[in-house]
Amino acid sequence: MHYVVDAIREMRPVSLRIEAADAVEARRQAGAMGCAVVGVRAARTPRASRRGDGRTFPLLHFNQSLLILLKAGLSVVEAIEALRERETGADAQAILGLLHADMRNGRSFSAALAAQPGVFPPLYVASVRANEQIGALAEAIERFIAYRAQADLLRKRVIGAAIYPAMILFVGGLVIAFLVLYVVPRFSVVFQELGDRIPLMSRLLLQWGRFAHDHGLQLLLAGAVATGFVAWAVSRPAVRAALLRRAQRLPRVGEHLRAYQLARVYRALGMLQQAGIPIVPALAMVGDLLPSSLRPALEAVRRDVAEGRALSDALAAHGLATAVSLRLLRAAERSGRMGEMLERTAGFHEEDVAQAIDWFIRLFEPLLMIAIGIVIGIVVLLMYAPIFELAGSLQ
After folding, report:
1. Distance CA 393, CA 8 (A)
2. Of 2, 28, 308, 347, which is least packed with CB atoms within 10 Å of its CB?
3. Contact 206, 379 (CB under 8 A)
4. CB atoms within 10 A of CB 90
5. What tens digit of pLDDT does each residue of 361-382 get?
6. Are strands 36-42 and 2-9 parallel, antiparallel or unpaired?
7. Is 42 helix (H, G, I), strand (E, B) or coil?
8. How far does Cα 159 stand from its chain's mean position?
C-alpha cells in the first residue's frame, strides 16, 4: 500500500510517497531517510489510475509543457514540481504529485511513469526509458508529441468533416419529428370525418397521426429509451467489435479501415525504432493498437522476426502489409532507416484514408439533404392530399 509521509528534511518540509505494509513501516522508512516525520496518511489514487484510461489527464499538453521547461534548463524533477503547482484539476494534480514523490524517492522518470499504467501508455514509457539512459529525454518527449499529434490528426479531420452532415441530420430529424408527431396528429383530427374519400397513403398517415395524438407521451418515452439503449450498446466493447467486423467485410470500407489500423501500428513502431527500441520488443508493445482479430497475426509476425525473418516478409506473410507498405519497408531494410520509413508509410496510408473520408463526406452531404427533402416533401404532400381531394369533390 502507498502512504504519503509529511516530514521535515534538511530544515525543509517535504512530502514523500512510500510503499509499505502499514503506516508504522512507512514512518520507519521515512526516518531511515533522515526525515523528521510530521504525519502519515494513505495515498489517494487518482480516478484516472483506478479507471485505467487516463482520460482526465491531458497527456499531450503535459508533454508539451514539460518539453518547454526541460529546454529552458530545468531538471525533470523541477519541471514536474512546477507543472504540479500550476495545475488546477484535482486528478491531474494528484497524478503529478505521485510522479514528483516517486522521483524525490529516487525513482527514475520512466519508473515513475510506469507506476501509473492507466495514465501513461507503455509506448510512451518505453520511449522515455530508452532515451533517458543516454541523456536524450527531451528528444524522446518531442518525438512522442509528434507521434500523438500525427495520430490524432486523422481523427480530428474526420470529426471536422462530420460536423456539417451531423447538423443537417439533426435539424432534418427535428423537422420530420415535428411534422409526424405534432402537425400530422392535428390534421388527422380535422380530416377524420372524410373516411374512405382520403387516398390510402394519406389515410395511413392520418391513422398514425391519431395514434400519435392519443399516445404522445408513451412515444416520447419509448424514443428516449431506444436512444439510451442504442448509446449504451455502442459503448460496449463487444458491440463495437462486432460492428467493426461487419464494416471490415464491406468492399471499400473494409479496405480503408484496415489501412487505418495498419497505419497506427506503423507509426507507433516508427516512434519506438527511432527511440532505439529493437523491433521485436516494439512489436510486442503495439499489439493493443490493433483490433482483437488482428492481434494473433501481429504476434506471429513478432515470432518470425525474432527467429530472423525480415520484417517486411513477416508482415506480408501474415496479412499486415499493403502493396505500398511492402515496397517501402523493403527499401528501409536496404537503407537501414526503418524508423523513418515506418513513419512515412503510416503517413501515406493516413493521407489515403483521409482523402477517402473527404470524398465520402462530399458525396454524403448532398445525398443526405436530398433524402431529408424527399421525406419532408412526401409527408407534406400526404397531409395536403385530403385537401386536394376535398377541393376536387366540391368542384
Report:
1. 98
2. 308
3. no
4. 12
5. 888 888 888 988 888 888 888 7
6. antiparallel
7. strand
8. 12
